[in-house]
Write a structure and sequence with these properties.
3 helices, mainly alpha
Length: 128
């Protein structure tokens, strides 16, 4: 029903997170043979986890359900706390949402960039 393949951007998988070259033999390779991220750099959960956020509230995609319906009801979800957030007052939540045709229902940042850019362009035209 849910798939975890395709949660990372194609460019991240193909370009950004390449395997370490065999010429690098020194150092600690903690990502290899890791239980948390099996598959090392090619693990899409690791790639999504490493993606930086533009806002203080981060949303990290875990999996998605394409062309399916989730029936109403009670669901039990088991979450392992591998990264404690209590020392800095952080919180963890589970968000179940429906994407729009533009693949995202959170478009505040895009709108903010367009509005800011338009204001800067208008000031640039007026002041020149």
């Amino acid at each position: 029903l849910f798939t975890e393949k395709g949660i990372a951007d194609k460019t991240e998988v193909e370009d950004l997170y390449q395997n370490i070259s065999s010429k690098y033999e020194g150092g600690i390779r903690w990502l290899e043979n890791n239980e948390l991220f099996p598959g090392g750099r090619n693990n899409e959960h690791f790639i999504v986890w490493m993606r930086t956020g533009a806002l203080p509230t981060l949303l990290k995609l875990y999996s998605y359900c394409k062309d399916c319906t989730i029936e109403p009801g009670l669901y039990r979800i088991k979450v392992n706390s591998n990264y404690p957030t209590t020392h800095f007052g952080g919180e963890k939540s589970i968000v179940v949402s429906e994407d729009t045709t533009l693949e995202s229902s959170f478009d505040f940042l895009g709108i903010a960039y367009i509005v800011t850019g338009s204001i800067c362009l208008a000031y640039g035209i007026v002041l020149s």
